[in-house]
Amino acid sequence: MYTLLIKAHLALIVLSFISFLLRTLWGFKGSPLLENKLAFAAHKAITLTMLISALILCFMINQYPFVDAWLTEKLMLLIAYVAFAMLAFKPSITAKTRSILASVTCFLFVMIFYIAKLHTPVLLG
């Protein structure tokens, strides 16, 4: 069961990041798809399902945010990731600002992945 859930969780992470990249590209192109309700709903559904799978995995491995430093750091970075991604999706920002926000978001994604892979905090360790 654990193996199946971790694979599903990883697939959802990849889908969520692809969704972020696609929506960011739409923002650069000024595409009306950036504000498409179906695309936004799909992105939210993927992210919510990913978070639910993460919560179930926490219970399966008996490690929890605010108890285990690596999960606390990962959660804090995830909140920052979501905040920067939401800012990058704003249709009214300049291309330069969108580039900076998208770059920070990608960096946060890499940090989250790194911490998840090693189960070691970077900032709180």
Q: How would you summarize this macromolecular structure in one to three sentences?
A:
One of its GO terms (cellular component) is plasma membrane. The chain is an all-alpha fold and 125 residues long.
Determine the mean pLDDT: 92
The number of helical segments is 4
What is the helix content?
A: over 70%
Instruction: Output the structural class.
Output: mainly alpha
Coarse morphology: globular
Low-pLDDT segments, ≥5 res? none
Give a count of the beta strands, DSSP E runs of length 2 or more: 0
Element order, helices and strands?
A: HHHH
Question: What is the domain total for the residues?
Answer: 1
Largest sheet data: none
Distance between the termini: 31 Å
Q: How much strand?
A: under 5%
* Radius of gyration computed on alpha carbons: 15 Å
Question: Could you characterize the architecture of this molecule?
Answer:
InterPro entries: SirB. This is SirB2 family protein. It holds the Pfam family SirB. The chain is an all-alpha fold. It has one domain (2-118). It is built from 4 helices and no strands. The longest helix is centred in the first third of the chain and has 28 residues, at 2-29. The model has no long low-confidence stretch (mean pLDDT 92).
